[in-house]
Amino acid sequence: MKNPCIYLLTNKNNTVIYIGVTSNLIKRIYEHKSGKYKGFTHRYNCDKLVYFEQFSTMDEAIAREKQLKASNRKRKEDLITNENPDWLDLAENWVFDF
Asked: What whole-number distance in Å separates Cα of residue 70 and Cα of residue 53?
């Protein structure tokens, strides 16, 4: 999946919501799940993909990321719940072969 997109991650208890942007969602989710980087998502165990959106250009994806980061938690929760009511890990069955 090499398209510009934004994605939302959470931890197992859904207490933290992380918003990111990438041009390769599969690779980026693999990096989060494998703990490749020791930043915010690693510190707060955010490795459950609960939402993503694809865009035609990276500029559109970045604009959407900024919009979501500026919104409150309730809006982010509503966005996730509308598409993924049980907050399942959308990448649970993905095969990572990097």
From this structure: 17
> Looking at residue 96, what is its pLDDT?
85
How is the chain split into domains, by residue range? 5-83
Backbone phi and psi for residue 21, each to the nearest 5 degrees, phi listed first:
-135, 145
Nearest of 44, 51, 54 to residue 89 by alpha carbon: 51
Q: What are the mean pLDDT values of the chain's consecutive 10-residue runs (98 residues total)? A: 90 97 96 92 96 97 98 98 98 85
**Residue 14 C-beta-side C-alpha neighbours within 13 Å:** 15
User: Regarding the domain delimited by 5-83, which CATH topology (the fold level of the hierarchy) does it fall under?
Assistant: GIY-YIG endonuclease (3.40.1440)
